[in-house]
Amino acid sequence: MEERAGKIAELLKILANKHRLLILCALGKGPLTVGELHRFTPGITAPALSQHLSQMRMAGILASERQGMNVLYRIQDQRVTALLGVLKEYYCQS
Predict the structure, then answer these.
(1) Rounded (5°) CA angle 74-24-94
(2) Residues 41, 13: Cα–Cα separation, whole Å
(3) Which of 16, 63, 71, 87 could form a disulfide with 91 if both were Cys (CB 3.0 to 4.6 A apart)?
(4) Count of C-beta atoms within a 10 Å radius of residue 90
(5) In this model, does residue 37 exceed pLDDT 60?
(6) Is 61 exposed, middle or buried, given 0-12, 13-18 or 19+ CB atoms closer than 10 A?
(7) Is the whole-model pTM more than 0.85?
(8) Is residue 71's pLDDT more than 90?
């Protein structure tokens, strides 16, 4: 049980950032390119957006796939999808 608590604590550390939550709310609607994500997160600079995406990809939260000249991001961690379902009512409102 302690090991599982540690894993969840690590996941929550990564998610405990307003910019990453905005990114995840946008991706909760489906896969998006960096350009599309930037439209959902206008307060984040392009380099900062790339850094957030990289952190979440390295943590296994996101998956990326190259499509031509674009990279498409999607949520791959089902725990995050479930958490977004709970947070959606309170946080992911347009």
Answers:
(1) 120
(2) 20
(3) 87
(4) 7
(5) yes
(6) buried
(7) yes
(8) yes
In the chain, the amino acid numbered 75 is I
Under a CB-based contact definition with an 8 Å cutoff, are residues 42 and 84 in contact?
A: no
Contact 35, 70 (CB under 8 A): yes
Q: What is the pLDDT of residues 3-31, one digit of tens each?
A: 888 888 888 899 999 999 999 999 998 99
What is the C-alpha to C-alpha distance for residues 17 and 55, in angstroms, rounded to an integer? Answer: 12
- Mean of per-residue pLDDT scores for the chain: 90
Q: Are 49 and 34 in contact (CB under 8 A)?
A: yes
What angle do helix axes 18-27 and 78-87 make, rounded to 10 degrees? 100
Starting from the edge strand earliest in sequence, which strands make up the sheet with 70-75, in order? Answer: 32-33, 70-75, 62-67
